[in-house]
Amino acid sequence: MKKFFKFLLIAILVVGFWLGMDFVSIRLLGLISGIPLSDNKALLEYAVANIHFKLALQWIITIALLFIFFNLREKRLSPSKKPYLKNKGFLADSWKMVIVGWGYAFFGLLLTGILLNILAGNPISFETLHPVNVFDELALSDVILFFVCMAVIVPLGEELYFRGVLFRESNLLYKLGPAMILSSLIFGLIHFNIGQSINAFFLGLTLSYVYFKRANFTDAIIVHVVNNFIALFVNINIITYYIAFIGGLICFIFAIKILRDMKHNSVNKFDVSRETIKER
Fold first, then answer.
1. What confidence tens digit (pLDDT) does each residue in 62-78 have?
2. Burial group, residue 99, by CB count within 10 angstroms (0-12, 13-18, 19+)
């Protein structure tokens, strides 16, 4: 019970900081655009209309603060649990994470589409899962900027925050299973949309598993970046939709094998700690 309350405190701090950065980024965006900070309605409307700018601003500031936290937190860890952020860079087989990311994107898009259609009371069919072409009215430069923000900056920030901090702290308290579930639950809830929240929960499980088994933050980043890229790629037009869908189906099959192989991986140990010693 003591561990749970400690996790609850960590979760409250994590969510509170995330909400605080959300508040700060909206105000900073307002300052940049010249909107009065007292006009909350105008600030929110502008932030929603320019969500990629808002998220990029939020995560750039958050990332800078997180690296300061990592440096301070690592000083308090025992030698067996260092470094705090496990990272080996690009490994010889890190390319497999592209397959995992694309395979999960297929699963996530299918899951989200089915959930949204059920909630809307629509019959489930292949046609109802077709995406809306959201990029039709955007200039090419805006599309590229949108992809950079949503498929690079946001995944990097979310991984540092939710796997680098929340999952890491959870795993210092619990074994892999509970740590994955608890941290992924928080990751899902902060999306504030039932369809996206459920998908984010399963994505969080996958990313936490990859990070733990590979003991390599870069691999988790690759999975998340590819997932977000494909989620945007399907919305360009019907051709990109079929490319992403068919490619995703193939990758999903291979991704299952890659993830299963990680289960038997005894080379990359996340921690020489009480939990991993018991697993041996």
1. 999 999 999 999 988 88
2. buried
77: phi > 0 → left, psi -120 to 50 → alpha, else beta; which? beta
Can you tell me the distance from the alpha carbon of 149 to that of 153, in angstroms, rounded to the nearest whole number? 5
How confident is the model over 240-266, as pLDDT tens digits?
889 999 999 999 999 999 999 988 765
Q: pTM for this structure?
A: 0.88
Q: Are 278 and 177 within 8 A, CB to CB?
A: no
37 contacts 43 by C-beta, under 8 angstroms: yes
Give the contacts of 15 (CB within 8 A, at least 6 positions apart).
Answer: 186, 189, 190
Q: Please list the alpha-helical segments (H only) found in the chain.
A: 2-33, 40-49, 51-74, 96-120, 140-148, 154-158, 168-173, 176-189, 194-214, 217-233, 238-263, 274-279
